[in-house]
Design brief:
Elements (H helix, E strand, L loop, with lengths): L16 E2 L9 E6 L5 E5 L12 E5 L1 E3 L3 E4 L3 E8 L5 E9 L2 E4 L8 E3 L5 E8 L9 E7 L4 H8 L24 E4 L11 H9 L3 E7 L15 E5 L1 H12 L4 E4 L1 H9 L10 E5 L14 E4 L8 H9 L1 H13 L3 E2 L5 E5 L1
Parallel strand pairs: 1-19, 2-20, 4-14, 4-16, 5-13, 16-18
Antiparallel strand pairs: 2-3, 6-7, 7-8, 8-9, 8-12, 10-11, 11-12, 14-15, 15-17, 18-20
Helix pairs in contact: 5-6
């Protein structure tokens, strides 16, 4: 039951102030249960106290790319998703004091001269059919020295109006970051430390990986998430299925992990090894088959991530959590605090 005192009226969710950057100390954690004592305030260091031996924690090993590249004319190119043919889905933005803002000057055939001798040519709107004017484009890139080396030299992490200062690429990685490919940080794992992972394993919690490479934040504009590349290893599928058979809690660390696991689930919620592209969009109407609990950050009220969160926790719990987090001064965005939704 959600205490009536913290349940807000129906309508727009409370918006949280963004965190300015990586904190010096551990970040806060709001624990919400679909039934039981309601909401609890704690810190990420105490995550293990809310899990049981045998619970399965699934993390994303995708690492963040320095995917923002300056372009001529005061523009900025955000590399979002690499397609199978080697072209990229990109977003053209205009640089400004607060970071960048949307640019409406994209057109088929437009050439962008990039920092460090690179060139991008916009070839078609993405996806097809696209909204008018299109925000995302499929582009051909020509860069010296190979893309990874080029981005390391000329690129920087994508950021928007917050944080106010630039942080190095290492600040946009988690302890699980291993496979480069995400345009923006899979931030739900940002509160994990080697010590916390060691404690979880010592408690008997099973920690297993998936990989899902995130694109640019189309969902932050209320748009439907588009296809993303993912992989669920056979060992992870086996661990999740074994956990479900013994009635353990399967905890997805982030909406990216939820999307990957649900994409690999078949009849009856049995997970199989899978890789490729997922177009699964988790909503309350669709529901979840595999994920019992979700550890995530705090998203903008317009974000479609919230539909996934409601699919796991339900709309009443989500509204109550956001109201409590706002009242307690929790911080949002990639360097913000955390939210754990439990059964």
């Amino acid at each position: 039951m959600i205490p009536a005192a913290v349940a807000p009226p129906r309508g727009r969710l409370a918006s949280l102030e963004p965190a300015e950057g990586p904190p010096a100390a551990g970040r806060r954690l709001l624990v919400a249960r679909r039934s039981g004592p309601g909401l609890e305030h704690t810190t990420m260091e105490r995550l293990g106290a809310y899990l049981e031996p045998g619970d399965v924690v699934v993390v994303n090993t995708s690492a963040t790319l320095p995917a923002a590249v300056p372009a001529s004319g005061g523009l900025l190119l955000h590399l979002s998703t690499e397609l199978d043919d080697g072209r990229w889905v990109v977003e053209v933005r205009r640089q400004c004091r607060a970071g960048s803002r949307r640019h409406h000057g994209g057109r088929v055939g437009r050439r962008l001269d990039l920092a460090g001798g690179g060139v991008a040519v916009l070839e078609e709107a993405y996806p097809q059919p696209a909204s008018v004017p299109s925000r995302l484009w499929v582009a051909t890139l020509e860069v010296p020295g190979g893309l990874r080396a080029y981005l390391a030299a000329a690129g920087r992490p994508i950021r928007y109006g917050c944080p106010e200062r630039s942080w190095p690429l290492s600040a946009y990685q988690s302890v699980f970051s291993w496979h480069p490919g995400s345009a923006e940080m899979p931030s739900a794992a940002g509160g994990f430390t080697p010590a916390l992972v060691t404690e979880l394993v010592a408690r008997g919690v099973v920690v297993v990986p998936v990989t899902l490479h995130t694109g640019v934040s189309s969902q932050e504009r209320g748009e439907r998430p588009y296809p993303e590349r993912f992989a669920v290893p056979a060992a992870t599928a086996e661990a999740v299925n074994a956990g479900r058979r013994r009635c353990a809690t399967v905890v997805a660390v982030g909406t990216t992990v939820t999307r990957a696991l649900e994409s690999a689930a078949g009849a009856g919620g049995v997970v199989a090894a899978a890789r490729g592209w997922t177009d699964v969009v988790v909503t309350p109407e669709r529901g979840v088959q595999v994920v019992d609990a979700l550890l995530t950050g705090w998203h903008d009220p317009e974000a479609s991530h919230l539909q996934l969160l409601e699919a796991v926790g339900g709309p009443d719990l989500v509204r109550a959590s956001y109201a409590a987090a706002h009242a307690a001064g929790y911080r949002g965005h990639e360097f913000g605090d955390f939210h754990l939704v439990l059964p």
